[in-house]
Design goal:
With about 280 residues, the chain is mainly alpha-helical. The chain contains 15 helices and 2 strands. It has helices at about 15-25, 30-35, 45-55, 60, 70-85, 85-95, 105-110, 130-140, 150-155, 160-170, 175, 185-200, 200-215, 220-230, 265-275, and strands spanning about 235-245, 245-255. Strands 1-2 form a two-stranded antiparallel ribbon. A hairpin with a 2-residue loop joins β1 (about 235-245) and β2. α12 (about 185-200) packs parallel to α14 (about 220-230). It starts with 12 loop residues before the first helix and ends in a 9-residue tail after the last helix. The relative contact order is 0.12.
Length: about 280
């Protein structure tokens, strides 16, 4: 179970659902036995039940949270809304909602057919620019506006999880972070990058970053992350990962050549698979 590198299983519904289904019939026979076996991870039966209910929701609903991630609180809200309006209506509303640039709270309000939450007076509006947020936090500490991440999050209305992700970025070597355009680097990109660093090791990612920095040209954040994960282009293999609920799809594309050394490193593939099962990358603090 330690292979799952997302949030604790009790707060990571989609990963918990995957773990439960994988062990059903082998490690446990029902939800109660699963909760007992996973108790050391803070899992209770209600967590298992909630995870299974959410993972069974329509794909259009789950896709709304690919950028924000799906945590326990989100799961509770989704179950409440489904109970109130029914699955069919929930699915119809989900299809009409563009997920880009929205927080999980805004998505929930739209699914609940309510106006988006108004920003609290005197608080900074939410943004999905982790590099910018990290800089704002550091500047606030220097100006004695706050001393801790919790204090900053409470005062500014920033999500504690998102702030933790942002500040974690600031601790990475500059050879990695300077590859990205901060205005086009999303929270989801940040989670993926941090997952790669934890999985492959900072030295490996920094090495790949240095090689990439020596190659001219502009690249999207997704293309940079793919290179950091797969290494030099001589592997000639592009890797894409798509997660919907507990279904994970890997796709690989490469140019066929008469002489090839290898398609992609097996250890890297295993590492990428582990990362993909982390609920779109929600990371521990």
């Amino acid at each position: 179970m330690e292979a799952y590198i997302g949030k604790p299983l009790s707060r990571n519904p989609l990963a918990l659902a995957t773990v439960y289904k994988d062990g059903l019939g082998r490690l446990w026979q029902n939800q109660t036995e699963a909760a007992e076996s996973l108790a050391r991870f803070g899992v209770q039966r209600e967590h298992v039940n909630r995870a299974l209910r959410v993972s069974a929701m329509p794909a259009d609903v789950l896709l709304l949270f690919t950028e924000t991630g799906l945590i326990g609180r989100t799961a509770r809200e989704l179950i409440r809304i489904e109970r109130a309006i029914g699955r069919e209506t929930l699915e119809q509303r989900a299809r009409a909602i563009p997920k880009e640039g929205k927080s999980w709270a805004e998505i929930i309000h739209l699914l609940d057919d309510k106006p988006p939450p108004a920003p609290e007076r005197g608080r900074t509006p939410q943004v999905d620019l982790p590099f910018v947020r990290a800089r704002q936090f550091v500047e606030g500490v220097a100006a004695n506006k706050w001393l801790t991440k919790s204090e900053a999050a409470n005062r500014q209305g920033w999500g504690k999880v998102r702030l933790s992700v942002a500040t974690a970025l600031s601790k990475l070597p500059t050879v990695i972070t300077e590859l990205f355009d901060e205005k086009r680097f999303s929270h989801g990109n940040a989670e993926t990058l941090l997952a790669l660093v934890r999985t492959l090791g900072v030295s490996k990612v920094a090495h790949n970053a240095k090689l990439l920095s020596e190659q001219p040209g502009r690249r999207s954040a997704a293309a940079i992350l793919n290179y950091l994960a797969g290494g030099p282009g001589d592997a000639d293999c592009m890797v894409k990962v798509h997660v919907v609920g507990d279904a994970v799809t890997f796709s690989f594309s490469f140019k066929a050549r008469a002489t090839r050394r290898k398609l992609i490193d097996v250890d890297q593939l295993r590492a990428l698979a582990i990362s993909a099962l982390a609920n779109s990358v929600e990371i521990p603090r």
